Amino acid sequence: GQQLNQSPQSMFIQEGEDVSMNCTSSSIFNTWLWYKQDPGEGPVLLIALYKAGELTSNGRLTAQFGITRKDSFLNISASIPSDVGIYFCAGHHYGGSQGNLIFGKGTKLSVKP
Amino acid sequence: DAGVIQSPRHEVTEMGQEVTLRCKPISGHNSLFWYRQTMMRGLELLIYFNNNVPIDDSGMPEDRFSAKMPNASFSTLKIQPSEPRDSAVYFCATTGLAAYNEQFFGPGTRLTVL
């Protein structure tokens, strides 16, 4: 079945550092999404990307839809302690049912003050 | 606007008991997804509905699990009988036609089966 490879699995960084994580797919997607999950909560949508090459920002977060349509990355600039959490990528492939997403395994981010 | 509402937030039960988890989607959303999240397996899709009709239940672990969506504003996930290995966090997520690939998640139900 469809799989998403998300890396890295975990990151330990110092406050103020920039962060980069990515996802790759074995097939092409028409949508890439990035979610953040805080402890004890459900994943929250951060950024949605709909076009190959699209680069979208949400505050200190920037995500891009790869031109091959098989990958996406998320960057966080100048990290702060509240960035701690698990970040998930998700994709929707052509021909898939409405909203039926494939999720990555997540990147656990720890920020040291 | 209210987001996806799930109840209960926490459930502790004994093995063999019936468990019912509830979800109220965002008003106007027409697709609903049930997920299970564990440390070992991550986020697993159990079943999803489109316009109240089950589309794919291939992720449901076994016959002990069942899900219904009797109307556009309510869905249940039932486990009968429950087992300790069912302990997990169960999420409901919904999407609408306007941005149909953007799933919005509820806060989840943390289930512990003793």
How would you explain this protein's 3D organization?
The complex is a heterodimer of chains A (113) and B (114). Chain A is globular. In chain A, the strands form two sheets. In chain A, strands 2, 4, 5, 9, 10 and 11 form a six-stranded mixed β-sheet that branches. A five-stranded antiparallel β-sheet of chain A has the order 1-3-8-7-6, with no helix packed on it. Chain A has strands at 4-7, 10-14, 19-25, 29-37, 44-49, 55-58, 61-65, 71-76, 85-93, 102-103, 107-112. Helix content of chain A is 0%, strand content 56%. Chain A is mostly beta strands and 113 residues long. The mean pLDDT of chain B is 94. Chain B has strands at 5-7, 10-13, 19-24, 31-38, 42-50, 53-56, 65-71, 74-79, 88-95, 104-105, 109-113. Chain B starts with a strand and ends with a strand. Chain B contains no helices and eleven strands. Chain B is globular. Chain B has 114 residues and is mainly β. In chain B, 0% of the residues lie in helices and 54% in strands. Chains A and B meet through strand 4, strand 5 and strand 9 of A and strand 5, strand 9 and strand 10 of B.
